[in-house]
């Protein structure tokens, strides 16, 4: 039996949460999910995986996130920026993400619960510092599930 040829320029990684790709001086990732919500949750996980080993984060501090944006790409940007803000201000690294995304009158809303813990330099490997989330090449795509792409300024 011959395999069906894929005609997409986008990766198809059904069971993969995220994967990184090279970008000069920055880092980029694709995050995947069977739902839009799951792809956003995995985008949050990918961003914190750039900063530390998320498997070593004890989920003990819970925060709530609410963002609204005019479209899904802006919603992804605002979601990641809010996570980065909470990380920078409260010195927390996160490893658990649960979001609900709804269409509203002027765009989309995201309500999320994120769980992590205060940074402990003795336990949390310090990888790259994420300075900002960029709009460059940011994308939200529905194709065999959902995939989102983001580039982080390091």
In the sheet with the most strands, the strands line up as: 1-2-7-6
SS-based class: alpha+beta
Instruction: Give the N-to-C terminal Cα separation.
Output: 46 Å
Rough outline? globular
Number of strands: 7
Strand content: 35-45%
Protein described:
This protein has helices at residues 36-51, 72-90, and strands at residues 18-23, 26-33, 61-69, 92-104, 107-118, 132-142, 146-153. The protein has 2 helices and 7 strands.
Q: What can be said about this structure in brief?
A:
Helices cover 23% and strands 44% of the residues. By secondary structure, it is α+β, with helices and mostly antiparallel strands.
Q: What's the arrangement of secondary structure elements?
A:
Elements (H helix, E strand, L loop, with lengths): L17 E6 L2 E8 L2 H16 L9 E9 L2 H19 L1 E13 L2 E12 L13 E11 L3 E8 L1
Antiparallel strand pairs: 1-2, 2-7, 3-5, 4-5, 6-7
Helix pairs in contact: 1-2
Features:
alpha+beta, disordered N terminus, 44% strand, 7 strands, 154 residues, single chain, 23% helix, 4-stranded antiparallel sheet, globular, 3-stranded antiparallel sheet
